[in-house]
Amino acid sequence: MKVTLRIFRFDPSVDEAPYYQNYNVEAEPYERVLDCLNKIKWDQDGTLAYRMSCAHGVCGSDAMKINGRCALACQKLVRECEADFILVEPLPSFTVLKDLIVDLNQFFERVNFIRPFLVAGEVPEKERLQTPEERKKMGKSIRCILCACCTAACPVANENENFLGPAPLVQAFRRIFDSRDIQKTQRLEQLDVEDGVWACLNHYECTRVCPKEIPVTKYINITKGEIKKVIGAPPE
Amino acid sequence: MEFLFDVLVVGSGLAGLRAALEIPTSLKVGLVSKVFPTRSHSGAAQGGIGAALGNEEPDSWEWHMYDTVKGGDYLTDQDAAETLARDAARAVYELEHLGVPFDRTTAGKIAQRAFGGHTRNYGEGPVKRSCYAADRTGRVVLDTLFGKALERKIHIFSEIYMVDLLVEGGKAAGIITYELATGAVHTVRAKALLIATGGFGRVYKTNSNCFSNTGDGVYLSHRAGVPLEDMEFVQFHPTGIYPLGVLISEAARGEGGVLKNGLGNSFMTDYAPTLKDLAPRDVVSRAIDTEIRAGRGVNGKDYVHLDLTSLGAEKIQEKLSDISSFARIYLGVDTATQPIPVTPTCHYMMGGIPTDLNGRVLNKEGLPLTGLYAAGEAACVSVHGANRLGTNSLLDLVVFGRRAGRAITEDIETLSDPSPVKDAQVRVEARIKAIKDGNGAKPSDLRTRMQLIMTDCCSVFRNQTDMERGLEEIRGLKDKYRSVSIDNKGANYNTDLLDAIELESLLGLAEVILVSALSRTESRGAHYREDYPERDDHNCLKHTLVTAGSDGLEISFKPVKITKFQPKARKF
Ligand SMILES: Cc1cc2nc3c(=O)[nH]c(=O)nc-3n(C[C@H](O)[C@H](O)[C@H](O)COP(=O)(O)OP(=O)(O)OC[C@H]3O[C@@H](n4cnc5c(N)ncnc54)[C@H](O)[C@@H]3O)c2cc1C
Ligand code: SF4
Ligand code: SF4
Ligand code: FES
Question: ipTM value of the model?
């Protein structure tokens, strides 16, 4: 079938303003939007820029806005797009570096800020024990691929540039509810600030777009509850 | 610009990260990667990491070593297999200590599952040896090591490509890099250089590999004079989703999934009576292709079925949720009620840059090359021999990645500052200009052609006639490549240019694979010759080496290290 892709273009080194460009490609219904982008880049226009790597939703490279919604181009099939027309834009709320490539530096700095590593005490000879029930508390948070779809889609993150954002909160959740970590309180304290968990207004956008089906909002709310339990009431 | 490091690690998959973590912070360490670290291919690994912890049933490192040697069809260097198996438990406990969220047994220990070729008591039956976190083990190990790298404040330079590697006077001198964001070309010198750039499954049309697996590190080492070892051994994983190639982990069969042909028969009983669906990958891939060739594919097509329906929705959701979501997203198949169409997909490269047990790269004479190290899929310690067992790669990465890091730390005192390498940068800049000015074929056309040729003539089954034809065609493509042309003449985020540069690696490696495969006149592990269907220990129990000489590729051989297990017929 013939598919039309309308793609956001912007090269700050030459363009004064962003513009949209249409491309037509032949694609099978089972093909991915990423396959369409590749056809364009490889056969029609090598100047188009986007990131990609694994092509099956496990690396997080090709997050972009497809028909108005943040998603991975390698997980979105042609047959899921209406009327053979696909609008492709970069992730919102990030600076565009070229076409569909955005600047993720701040995003990763914030992930780094929550200390995305286990802090545990003494090292036993064998494994630290953890029951399946304890392990389950981390839930789906270990599925996060740091694609940034959630942060890009979050209305709060779009308005408040200081909001930590959903992805770092998911990363924090993973450590807070890891029974092996000994800094639960410190981690909760770090999030117990205006631009931490409390900035989240439960818009559920993050949960809607997460390509790994992580219940992001639910996890943020569980974290809020845990803060109330461990530290006390939130600041007024 | 020119930069100087004590240690430069190229590649931020598990091998590169694990090595970097082993190097003391007192040294100036740089880590360059063409993708952001957490986008590395290691994150795609699904099924688990092997270690004889004995958490679910009795197990021993000797059995693991034996399976690794037999799985590799006796081409495995046995000192390497012993190192791997003996160090496995320590390595896995270390990952647990660093924070990997492994699945757990009811007693709170690391859970384990069965995997192809892993057996109890020297082949008696399957054993649960794979330590796993659902079906995203690689992902969580990558996240964990990346977190540690952040904690250690290791300098990571992302979206920086190594475009040339310099070896001068038998010593590693440095690399030339290309910065994706700006197009700037830099020279980076280092006393010690570690290549951890992963595999190159992108040589084939249907593969499970990411787009960045183009084998740059292996090819550039080869171009700089390093021999490449056992390149004919290309692993085809039995269960890639048809027709995409996206992988369905062996864990699916480890948990009880069964392969069925077009008649609905579970055919693996005919090919491997003891291990059945859990036989090593080369055996299962050949069985599938044999069924398809005999007209017993499903609906007469080029695929068979992987049936998980007996597992039940709950177990699938708990243990195999990623792969069941792949089946749902890409095929609309509900794995709890419907079988998945699968076909062998190019997956892993057993061959690569030869190293000793400590990651030191070996030259043609078998001597360490000063300052150059390699680890991970790019390397060939020859721990996987002619066929790698599932879960042994992740283990290889953390065991030998760590050893490489240690060797560098040990050697660094003795390594002098690398000599300046001015001309090389000028050469690279000229090459980039030539590609931008080129007027020949597009990289994608040449690449597609190459992938079809390789798939056609050097996959699961091979023979001399087809491979000779393939080699001629690949050489023709290499000629055409000289005038390759691209649309994008810009400087920032020019992935068009990088496609062209990566293609040189792929074409070069395709040629080496064919030359190696033609030279091995026997069938062993993943290398099955229709014209030489038997294993020939008398003439061929040796490693192949291919070196780039002044008049083309030169072939030589080196002996296999045999310690505990004498080669015998391989039955499963
Ligand atoms: C789908 C899938 C599932 C798998 N499942 C398992 C499993 O369950 N168990 C198991 O043991 N093994 C598994 N494997 C195999 C295993 O994942 C790989 O062999 C392994 O991850 C390779 O790791 P690596 O560190 O060598 O390289 P990679 O993780 O591939 O990393 C390569 C690194 O090199 C960088 N790089 C490459 N070229 C350049 C360049 N020119 N310049 C700069 N940087 C460069 C890349 O950016 C990347 O950071 C699986 C493989 C696949 C494809
Ligand atoms: S739930 Fe919170 S984090 Fe998620 S989109 Fe809404 S405001 Fe943003
Ligand atoms: S939580 Fe989901 S959407 Fe957000 S970064 Fe992780 S995987 Fe992406
Ligand atoms: S390319 Fe890796 S997530 Fe899409």
Answer: 0.95
